Amino acid sequence: MDGQAVADFAEFAHSRWSRLVRLAYGITGSREAAEDLAQTALASAYASWGRVRRADDPDAYVNRIVVNAHHSSFRRRRVREHLTATPPDPGATAPDPAAQHDERAPLVAALAALPRRQREVIVLRFWLDLTEAQAAATLGCSVGTVKSQAARALAKLRTSPELANREAR
Amino acid sequence: MSIDERDLAARLDSELGTFAPGPLPLDTVIRRGKMTILRRRLTAVAAALAVLAAAVLVPTLIHALRPPPPVAPHYRVTVSPPGPGASSSLVARGTVNGARWTYEVFTGRHGLCEKYIWGFADCAGGPGSVGPSVGPGGEPAILSGFSAFAKPPGKRLVRVQMARGYVRGDVTRLRVLLGNGQILTLRPTPALGSGHGSWVAVAVPFESAIRKVIAYSAQGEVGYAIPFTGAQTIEFGRWLLPGQRALPRAAQRLIGKGTMRGGRRGDAWRMPWSVRAVIGPWGLCLQGSYPGLDRCLPAIRHVWSGSLVARLTSGVARLNPPGQAPRGLVTLQLAQEVRRLVVTGAGRRPLTLIPVRLGEWQYAVLAVHDSARSLHWTAYDRSGRRLGTGRLAGFSANWPRAFPLG
Questions:
Q1: Whether the Cβ atoms of residue B346 and residue B371 lie closer than 8 Å to each other
Q2: Which chain A residue is nearest to residue B229, measuring alpha carbons?
Q3: Distance from CA of B87 to the nearest CA of A (A)
Q4: Contacts of residue A13 in chain B, CB cutoff 8 Å?
Q5: What interhelical angle do B26-48 and A3-28 show, nearest 10?
Q6: Which of B15, B22, B75 has the CB atom closest to A108's CB atom?
Q7: Hey, are the CB atoms on B16 and A108 less than 8 Å from each other?
Q8: What does the alpha-carbon distance between residue A17 and residue B179 come to, in Å, rounded to a whole number?
Q9: How far is CA A31 from CA A127, B28, B211, B259, B309, in A?
Q10: CA nearest B297: which of B274, B319, B315, B275?
Q11: Distance from CA of A40 to the nearest CA of B (A)
């Protein structure tokens, strides 16, 4: 990659970093996981920079990487558990970053209690402001799935004990 | 969008918008990106050369697998004062990755003009314009950025981002800290002659390269500024005192969006718009979805004590296709207790604005006609109790000017 391309990528990375970390934080509920997912997305963009910068929507590309990288980390955790010969010692189990302490903001904590796909739909639709079609393209699913997942997520959030407990303080 | 969904969007914006990520580890990202490229190439090589003897390949692969050294952002910037024999209007010159730039200011029959390497000047103010200056009680420097060009030897012009402006009388130098680790020293030049502010200029490859500017007098540091940067934007909205904490922490939220519509059948047009507020050590900046909507305001507090609503001195950002009746956007700052603002008047249906909170204040964006008669607002609190009323005066295209309300 020549100097100008690296400079262009650096500009892209600087301008997208905060948004990508916040997107990943909404999905994972963990600062560390969020920054790692954002790094992964930008590293992937670097590796494909020629294609990314010519794309109609480079942001959609990195959004997809964040979501896919999150899926990959979930799959890796599941595989690790299956490969364990004996039931893992609870203390040795890798902590689920989405089920952490309660120092997170209330809504982020409530999101962490949702299934992964519902969490992703909520963050993509209501924070990133993607349309249903855009969210479906990012998640690799149908518009109907986005609608149904959003409806279920909203129903759960309305009765979320996490939100009720925090707001009662 | 139902109230539930709007509430959710607002809360998500509040919680995620105020979540402050750490700094971008650019060298780590690039290193990981290079490892990804290497893995892809190794996969291709392994597939194509699977039949070759491993003893031949192993040394090459081991060398290729060694992680590359950490890399700093790949750019180099230089800046130097005019030097002997230079034109009196020359403020500074330098290079960006070897591409040369210059910056000049002068006054003439077209007003106050600035000229960069491209060869023609941008002028404003008309004949009789005088050079600006900063009074003794003012900020150390008035700086802002714009998109310019530089000339690499033997090649076509390349785009750079230039930050320039003028300094207070006691400021003898500015230090500019760049993201690649470079620290540049800018020496103010009295390009417009004595009695006017001395000017500085520097060009960088992209907006976010400038991380901080520190101003010095003969007695030492007098202040520093952290710029707000965005697409073709470098704004130094606020100067902090030496040692003052760089607050508030950076946060942003979408504070308004909608669709402008106009025209008649066969000639109808619609234009979606959105405005995002970004707060940080630079003050408050508004980013719009179209050029011309961006503004930076040095002070975050605009709502006077006891006031409910203030119109930010951002002017009306015109938003309409050429030849169409003008439309514009006005950004409002609202007190914390306002939960709902209903705007009426000028023949429009009542419009309810739900303010969006960012940091200490709330914001809302209102689409208006340039020639609209006065609009009236009524503010309500959380329980629906009326807090007060006020007037939004008529608008024209000749903004900015301030309209304190409430």
A1: no
A2: A15
A3: 31
A4: 24, 26, 29
A5: 100
A6: B15
A7: yes
A8: 14
A9: 17, 17, 23, 35, 36
A10: B315
A11: 7
Q: Which of B3, B4, B12, B276 to mutate to test the interface with A (most CBs of A within 10 A)?
A: B12
| Contacts within 8 Å (CB) and 24+ apart, B238-241 | B238/B281, B238/B282, B238/B283, B238/B298, B238/B299, B239/B139, B239/B140, B239/B141, B239/B215, B240/B281
pLDDT, tens digit only, all 406 positions of chain B: 444 677 787 778 777 776 777 778 888 888 888 888 877 777 766 666 655 555 555 555 555 555 554 445 678 999 999 988 998 999 999 999 999 999 999 887 777 888 886 556 677 766 666 677 777 778 899 998 888 888 888 888 888 899 999 999 999 999 999 988 899 999 999 988 877 889 999 999 988 899 999 999 999 999 999 998 876 678 888 899 998 888 788 888 888 888 777 666 655 666 777 788 888 888 888 777 655 556 676 555 544 455 777 766 444 455 555 555 556 777 888 888 899 999 887 667 888 999 998 887 888 888 776 555 677 889 999 899 999 888 876 554 433 333 222 2
Tokens standing for B260? 């402008």
pTM: 0.55
Does the distance separating the beta carbons of A7 and B73 come in below 8 Å?
A: yes
What's the gap between Cα A124 and its chain centre? Answer: 9
- Contact assignment for A47 to B25 by CB distance below 8 Å: no
Which residues of chain A does B73 touch, with a Cβ-Cβ cutoff of 8 Å?
Answer: 6-7, 10
- In B, minimum Cα distance to A36 occurs at B29
| Cross-chain Cβ contact A10/B13 below 8 Å | no
Q: Which amino acid is at B200?
A: V
List the structure tokens of A157.
Answer: 């959030």
Query: Under an 8 A CB cutoff, do A25 and B36 touch?
Result: no
Looking at chain A, which residue has its C-alpha nearest residue B1? A126
ipTM above 0.90, yes or no: no
B247: left (phi over 0), alpha (psi -120 to 50) or beta: beta
Q: Which residue has the tokens 């290497």?
A: B38
